Amino acid sequence: MKRIALIGHRGVGKTSLLKRIEFYFAGTGRKIHFLDLDREIRERAGTDLQKIFETQGEEAFRKLERQTFSTIDSETRDRDVYLALGAGFDPALIPETWTVLWVRRSTDEAGRIFIDRPRLNSKVTALEEFQERYHRRESAYRARADQVLWLDEGSDLNNDPAERSFFLGELKNLKGAMTILPAQFRSREKLETWAMERAGWGIQWFELRDDLLTEEQMSLAANLFPDDRILVSFRNQERVTQTTELVQRQALAFDWPLEMGECEFAEPTILSLHERRGEESIAQCLERFPSQTSSQMKAALPVRNFEELKTGDLWRKQDPSARCFLPHSTDGRWHWYRMSLARSQPLNFIREGDGSGADQPTLLRWARLSEKTEEFAAVLGDPVKHSRTPMEQREFFRPRPVVSIRATEQEVQSGALEVLAELGLRWAAVTSPLKELAFEACAQLDEASRALRSVNTLQRFGAIWSGANTDLDGLREALSELPRGRVAVWGGGGTLNVIRSVLPQAQFFSLRTRENRDSSGPRADEYSPDLVIWAVGRSKADINDPPEKWRPELVFDLNYSEDSPGRAFALNSGSRYISGLSMFQAQARAQRKFWKL
User: Which one of 170, 397, 499, 540 is separated from 435 by 20 to 30 angstroms, measured CA to CA?
Assistant: First the structure.
C-alpha cells in the first residue's frame, strides 16, 4: 500500500493539490482515498476550526489534530491514501510507513496574509504571524520529508501534464542530471525506492559528489544505480584517493574540477570549473580550460550580471556539443537561463528539493520542456518570484519555455533587454518598475502605450522591440462589476495614469505623504471611501497605511501576491477583499492577442 502525506507551509496549496491529484487519478481504476486532515477534524468533531481556535486555543486544536491523524493512520494501513496535513502538524509524528511529500513554492519565505483563516497570534501582524513560525516549520519539514515537490505560482489548475505525470508515475526520458544528497539516505529501503523510481524517469546522470556524501554513502549509491548513469564528481582534495578507487573499481564516468589541478590517473569525462579568482572576469576564467581536450567542458561559474552571462553563452556557442555553461548565483536568479537553453546543452542539472544549486531547474519545470528551442518568452520585473505569468502563458507558447527573469531598473538601463534578445528572448510580459523603461526601448507602440507612456507587453521583431499596454484592458474588466460610490486610490506609481483614465472621479492619495494628489481635493483623514484601490507595488518599502478611520466596504488590490500589504489593510479594517488576479488574467488574455508566434 502507498500512503503519501502532503506537508508544507500555510497557503502553499496542499488542499488544492490534493484535489488535482484526485482529478489525475480519476478514470485510472485505482481505488485511492484522498483525505484532508483539517476537513476530517471538522467532520469528526462536528465543529468549525475557527471556533476551536477561538474557544479552546491552539494547543487544544493541536491535540485534536494529533488524535485525528492517529485514527486515520490506524484506519488506512491497508489502503492507498493521499493525506494533506495542516502546516502546524508536527511531521516528526508521521510514522515511517508513510511517504512524506514536502510541497513548496518559491514564495514561502516571503510569507502569506490570510483573510479567511484562523489567527494564530493576534498580538502581532498577520505577516509576522506567518514569519515567526516559518523557520521552525521549515526545519521540521526538511528533517522528515522523503520527497520534495516545487509548485509554480499559478499551479492551481488541472491542466499541467508534468504534474499529472509525476503523480501517475509516467515521467519518462527526462535526461538531465540529479545530484544525490545526504537527505536521501534516511533509510536504505527508501533510498532504493527513490533510486528505482528516478532511474525509470530516464535521468541521464546521477551525480555522487565527494564533498557532499560520505565514502559509505557513495559506495551504497554506486551499487543502486546502473554504472553507465553514475557520474562521480571530485570536489574534496582530501578524498581523492578513495574517490579514485570507486571510479576505477566500477569504471565510472567522472567530473574533475580545474581547481584541483591536473587529473593524473585518466582523462576526465567532464572537466569543470566552479570558482573565480579574485576579480577575474568570466572571459579570463574560461581561458583556463585547455585548448585541446577530449573531455566535455563544464563552466559552472558565479555570474554577476547580464553581460557576464552573455560572455559565458558566447563561449558555449563556440562548441555547443562539448561545452556547457551553467551560471550560478546565491539566490537562483539564473535558473531561467538553464531553463531556456535546457535542451540545447549536453549537460544540465535539475532538482527536486534544494538540489546542489538554486539555479537548477525544478523537476516540474524541467519535465514541461519537450523540444530544443533557442527562443523563449519571459516575465521581467523586480521582484518577480510571485508572478503567475509562466503558468498562465505556458500553453500559449508551448513548446517554447516561459520563464521568470529578475531584472532591475539599472540593469535594463545598462542594456539587459538587448542581451536577453541575443540569448533568444522574443516575447515578454513586463511588471513594475520596468514599464516606463520598456516603453523607451520600443520602436513600435500601440495607442495605449503612447498615451500612458508605459509598456507591459513586448515582442521582438528582427532587431526592434514592439510594445503594447494591456493594463487598461485588465483594469476596466476587473472594475466593471465592483461597487463604486466614494473611491480612493492608495498609491499608484507607474499605474497612476492607467487608473486615472478608468476612474477619473476617484480621489488619489500618495502613499508617502498621505496627501491628496489633487491639492483641491479632500485630505485622507477627512475622507471616508466605500472602495479602496490598493495600488502599491510589492517592491515599495516604508509605505504609510491609510488613516485608521477608513473602513471601506471593499478593498481591491492591484496585486495578487499573498504577502501584499493590501491584504493586511483589508484584514485590519474589516473590509471585503478582492485580489488583482482577475485583472491579471484579463491582461494576460489581451497580451495573447498582441503576441504573434
Answer: 397
